[in-house]
Amino acid sequence: MDKKALEIFRAEVDTELSLPIADGGIKAGFPSPAQDFMDLAIDLNKELVRHPSSTFYGRVRGDSMQDAGVYDGDILIIDKSLEPRNGDMAVCFVDGEFTIKYIKIEKEIVWLTPANDKYKPIKVTEDNDFLIWGIVTYSIKKQR
C-alpha cells in the first residue's frame, strides 16, 4: 500500500457557498433559452456535507480506484458517522496506512477490494491493525 494514498483535510462548513443551479437538469442536447433566467442557488456545503462534525475531505493519491472513476488528485468527501455497508467505498486504515477501497464482506471475512486490476484485494485478518475510517459519499474531479 502507498502511504500517501490520501491527504485528509477537515471540512470547513461554517461559510455558505451558494452557487446558481439548473434545477430542471442539464440537457446534453440543444440548450434551452430559458437557462439564461436561472435564479435558483444551491449551497454546496449543505448539499455535500450531511454531518459537518464528522465529515472530512481527502485528496486521492494513486490509481487503485481508477476503474470506479476515482483518479489521482480527485477530492473525496468522507463521512465518519456512517455505518459501513457491504459494497461501500471507504477510507480504511490498515497497518498504519490509509487506503481507499470497496468493502466486501463474505461470511464474516472483510475484503478491501480495489477498482484496478493492477492491485489485489486485501483480506483483513485479526493480525491487521484495521479501522474503517469513513465512508466516501461524493467524489469531486477537476475537469480543466
UniProtKB/TrEMBL annotation:
Domain Peptidase S24/S26A/S26B/S26C per the UniProt entry, residue ranges: 22-136
Keyword Cell membrane attached: no
Record's protein name: Protein UmuD
Gene3D superfamilies: Umud Fragment, subunit A
Keyword Hydrolase: yes
EC top class, as a word: hydrolase
GO molecular function, one term: hydrolase activity
